[in-house]
## 1
Amino acid sequence: MPGRAEHQPYHHGNLRAALLDAAERSLRAHGADQLSLRDLAREIGVSHAAPRRHFADRQAVLDALAEAGFVRLGATLHAALTRSESEGDFSARVQDAVSAYAHFATENAALCELMNAGKHHPGATAVTQAAATAFGQMTDLIEEGQALGELEQGDPEQLGLILYATVQGITTMVNSGAVGADQLDGLISTAVTQFLRGARPRT
């Protein structure tokens, strides 16, 4: 039809969700540096101005992706901890939670890289809060271990950071190809076992 706009009218029920889905696909395929609002609009079939209804610029999309990633990670950790709660075995709860994180990090490598960078982006308050909520569950788990006498007393966040750094190193090696993905579960199990042994209260 003569004079018809180049872009088709918007038909999605939720523009923001559609944009974030497209952004995550772009992130996986091309990395954060290649993401653009114009390309996202083209992919989901809206005008190039439509994304600005929800995102002021490209960085706003990246921040929203990072925040959503931490929300998903938090739900993943919560599910793992809930499943193991009835077992009453603290070491098993740590293994389950850490394994859940490790699989999330290796199955969503590009997203996790963005999440880790997003925590330190100026003004990304929502990202920082989502990260604190997700990882706060691990701090709670460390405090639980201290209350049970399974872990030494001290700053639970510092203990958690030691465990996180170890696991992060393993997942980074898997994501880079330095270690095969088939070794992930064994390495995580060994790392958690050694952490628990090292953090056990001295008698």
## 2
Amino acid sequence: MLPFFADLVVRTDEARRAFETHPVVLDAVANGMPVERYRRFLLELYHVVWHFNPVCAAAASRMPDTHRQIRYHLYEHMHEESGHEEWVLNDLDAVGVGPEATRAHRPEVHTLALSGYNYWAAERRHPCSVLGMIYALEVIASVYGGPFSSAIRESLFLQDDRGVSFVSSHATMDAEHMAELRVVLNTLLDDEARDAVVESTTVNFHHFTRIFEAV
């Protein structure tokens, strides 16, 4: 039997490829975005990031002792991710959207669907579903974050990491997190937990693709 990390990659490959081959994603990674589209993307991203730790907390609070290693991993991961929505606030401020306007923004339907599914999955499906959210978002950040932030920097004539600090930094950070996540995922031995992670990964890739497509 394949280690679960390898099995997860295989079982969710179609969903990952649907994201990376989407024309809107390909164009953004190659050419960046006009400033208005980038603002809209960051406004949606702010809500994705804001809800990341609360989803992890909901999952950790429901994690049985049979999966205590997942709970401990979530504790550490939440500590590392604390306050990262402030980085998105700073990036938005750098491209002309102030903090008050960002906090007042109502997320679009695909962002609501992403967050709503992740809360529901953590609380009702299986608490290990949260690992699918983490895996999908870290794949996107670690593989595509670097080229995307470079394209945005060039297309909008931004200096250094001003305006792209969140995406640029997570391209490196999440590559490191992925190595840690591989170890944790390989501790999952029961089919119910594994199936929940696969479903969550697929749904998160789908909804994040729709977010990107709609901005």
## 3
Amino acid sequence: MLRSGKTGLALTLILALAACSGARERNREIALEELEAEPIYQQAEAQLEAGNPARAAELFIEVERLHPYSEWASRALIMATMAYHQDRDYENSRASAQRYLDFYPGTEDAAYAQYLLALSYYDQIDQVGRDQGITFQALQALRVVIEQYPDSEYAASAILKFDLAFDHLAGKEMEIGRYYLRRQNYAAAINRFRVVVEEFQTTSHTPEALLRLVESYLALGLTNEAQTAGAILGYNFQASPFYDDAFRLLTDQDLAPEAAGESWLREIWQQTVRGAWL
């Protein structure tokens, strides 16, 4: 009976504590509705510092919801955007960044909001072997930072990330081109390498694209195009090991890297000589 009495007492205490906990939770929620903007904002900051960005974002959003016309509203919205991004909740980060830009376009934090919007795409860029649609969106958003906020502290970082994202797109074309080349589908491979040479000239993939064009054109017996691709490669990237390989491929067939014939590559060569290329 003593044991039974203790068990009953323990159960009563557990139920009482649970009821108190529930009451405190309800009181906390009610208290949040009654708080001014600043204390809620301070709670959000504390959550952020404690490493709880998801909860911090919720509280920052509550500041804007409960006090939309206060001086804290815009600050809370940009902080929510940052907290969402820290939590890798890119969809909500992007949505709150766009909301900030819609409601507060002329503030000093507008550049940061646009930068965070761009990062919400950029930080999702995967390896070049996967779909690169997100990369195009990152490029578009980064371009806005560069063009609309050129004097902001985020412009330099946006330029760097733009170049890296651009390189990703070129890498995708190269990967597909090499796939076709390995399978001796030379026409399809040439189309991919041509995209790199014409549209991604400033990326790190251009020298290899020119070498692969030499390979592909030689395989098809199109020596003029192969020579011209080699000439462009030598003119712009003579120190590259890709040029060494291209030179060897050409000379093995008693050919020289020089502009020959009329093709799309001849136009690229002319641009190179005029200094309009790269």
## 4
Amino acid sequence: MVEENQNILEKVIAVLPILQRVFDHEIGVCLSDMHDILMYSPAKDLNFHTKINSPLKPGSAIYRLVNERLPYLTARMDKKLHGVQYQVRVGAIYNKRQEIIGAVAITQSTDHYETLKEMAGQLLNNISTLASTAEEVTAQSEEITSVAQTLAQVAKESQEQVAETYRVISFIKEIAGQTNLLGLNAAIEAARVGEQGRGFGVVAEEIRKLAANSTESIAKITLTISKIQTGSAMTYNQIGQVEEGICQVSEAIAHLAGATQELRSMAHLLDEKADQL
């Protein structure tokens, strides 16, 4: 029976280096009988410097398995023990009579998994910040859009009022022209009447002066209104451009919000995978 058990353990010893190569030495392998370490090959980033034929260390995972007659045991070891966080999986080796004759332990560093989990957590925090910022920008964009629409309406109404003012000025200009013509005719008639029409001639001259002043004032008003209309048109166009730009920003933020949600889901999945590993 002892020889049979020894043959089984030797066959396991022959297989373990192959298993280690399959995992590119990311795992360490250890084989024991019920009392001593028979074989040990460390992982490339985790070495316990275990000596062959050394007795099983009380409290270790492999010691617990063979003494408690457990079929399988897994444990995650704290970084304080060996300076690196690692996971150990131990499985029992049975003979034909289903008696435990030893155990195989596989160790693997989990530092990179912890780093992965930390990165996932940081990614989640960054995504949350990004999502919050996007929401704030969206709200502000909506407010700006509302203001821009109001300003655009005001500018449009201003242009309509300017156009109406032009019509009024044209009417006044026409009246001024007629008044000037009336004053000219009155002056001619006053001159024709002679001395009796002198007083009427003075009035006619004043009417012509009033018409001339009105024409000059209308010219100035027209120039001013023209400038107002030009400025109003520019404002209206610029507000339209701003409104269009805000719409594009809003669309971009909407796409960003969708991408952020996808990233959030991926980050959660990454965090879950890190826990499973």
